[in-house]
Design a protein that fits this description.
The structure is a single chain. By secondary structure, the chain is α/β, with parallel strands linked by helices. It has 18 helices and eleven strands. The strands form four sheets. Strands 4-7-10-3-11 form a five-stranded parallel beta sheet. A two-stranded antiparallel sheet has the order 1-2. A two-stranded antiparallel ribbon has the order 5-6. β1 and β2 (77-83) form a beta hairpin. The longest helix is centred in the C-terminal third of the chain and has 18 residues, at 258-275.
């Protein structure tokens, strides 16, 4: 029996544009953290949004890719609100996603682990329907009840099945409100559970045969589904042909160039340092070294064309951000407070070597063939090399 999902919290204004409010919450949902930006876009939106959308498609795109500063009245004061970039990558990916969500077809974001699928899904939901909290996490234990509805057993025994005794799933709540449902890791669910989505996506309705009469819950305009799937999970639980037809696939590639990856690591690391209230410093040269190491090991080739061994682990940008945060924590608690190349090296092993211990070979080769050679001319690379060899 599925537990009753918590009602989504109503978005409220943050203390300043894009800033963390003083509440004791480790991570705020996008609609709360970026409430000022969303409100500024709403006030400046000159186009009519689709039914039950909070913003027009063009404003949703602006929210995700940023690059503008808008005048708005926030908390009774006239202020200028910068719209920051939330998703780094091909803007066309964001455009196709928005167009899909405005259509009859659902959206399936597909890509390697750590490419920002859930991140993009959260921000699209926040901008389009005002809440990113209507979410189903796909696992091997997800059941049809999690997708459709369940019952308050004690009340059903006492009163019988009634609409008041039914526990609506996040999907049903989204249908009733004309909102977006986020379905994470869809391919982790078994096929029988996946197929529960077919009727929802085709008929835009859920039948409740336990209730008397022709009990149906119909979706309001604006309802749609954003699902995510990892390419490495393909073949675990393949989607049926019927379900595939009802999704528009949008592939999110790994970040294509070093400059963009450095920007992502820099921005997200700064946000995380702020969230954890860390005074540690991450200098641009250290972030560039981190991004260089990740890119070269991921590609199996250095910037000057030397071939090196690739590990089995997907070294995504998200992993690089994790290493940056771990290095900052290490520098804060056990170092001088400023992150250096050695701090990066100390936290590399855990990011690269996960399931296969043979992946240590790739790190050892990189340390010997690449880092040692560069360390002969560059102090930062020597510090990185010495610390990495010590860890291996």
């Amino acid at each position: 029996m599925a537990k009753k999902p918590a009602a989504p919290a109503a978005p409220s204004a943050a203390t300043s544009s894009g800033s963390v409010s003083p509440e004791t919450v480790l991570r705020e949902p996008a609609e709360k953290r970026y409430a000022d930006q969303l409100e500024a876009l709403r006030q400046n939106d000159t186009e009519a949004p689709p039914t039950n959308w909070k913003l027009s498609p063009r404003s949703v795109l602006t929210y995700v890719i940023g690059g503008k500063t808008l005048k708005a009245t926030i908390g009774g004061k006239s202020v200028e609100v910068p719209i920051t970039r939330k998703f780094f990558g091909d803007d066309g990916v964001v455009e196709r996603s928005i167009v899909t969500l405005a259509s009859e077809r659902a959206l399936l974001l597909v890509g390697e682990p750590g490419t920002g699928k859930s991140w993009l899904s959260e921000h699209l939901a926040a901008a389009i329907c005002g809440t990113s909290l209507l979410t189903i996490q796909g696992t091997a234990g997800t059941t049809e009840e999690h997708i459709k509805y369940s019952w308050n057993i004690a009340r059903v025994i006492a009163e019988g099945p009634t609409a008041q005794n039914m526990i609506a799933s996040p999907a049903m709540i989204a249908m009733k409100g004309g909102a977006l449902l986020r379905f994470e890791e869809l391919t982790r669910c078994v096929p029988d559970v996946q197929d529960a989505l077919v009727s929802i996506l085709s008929d835009k309705a859920v039948a409740v045969p336990e209730l008397p009469g022709d009990a149906m819950v119909f979706a309001k305009p604006g309802f749609n589904i954003i699902a995510t799937a990892n390419t490495r999970d393909q073949g675990v639980n393949e989607l049926s042909a019927a379900l595939k037809r009802r999704f528009n696939y949008v592939y999110i590639p790994i970040v294509g160039d070093q400059k963009t990856e450095v920007k992502i690591v820099q921005q997200r690391s700064a946000e995380l340092l702020e969230r954890y209230n860390l005074p540690a410093k991450l200098s641009p040269p250290v972030i560039e070294l981190l991004a260089t190491v990740f890119r070269e090991i991921r590609n199996g080739k250095t910037s000057d064309g030397v071939s090196i061994k690739k590990p089995s682990t997907t070294l995504s940008t998200a992993e690089a951000i994790g290493v940056a945060l771990d290095a900052a924590l290490h520098a804060r608690f056990f170092g001088g407070g400023e992150v250096g190349p050695a701090d990066i090296a100390r936290n590399m092993v855990g990011a690269v070597v996960k399931e296969d211990q043979e992946d240590k070979v790739a790190l050892k080769e990189y340390a010997t063939v690449v880092a040692k050679k560069r360390g002969a001319k560059d102090k930062s690379w020597k510090e990185f090399h010495d610390a990495l060899v010590e860890q291996l």
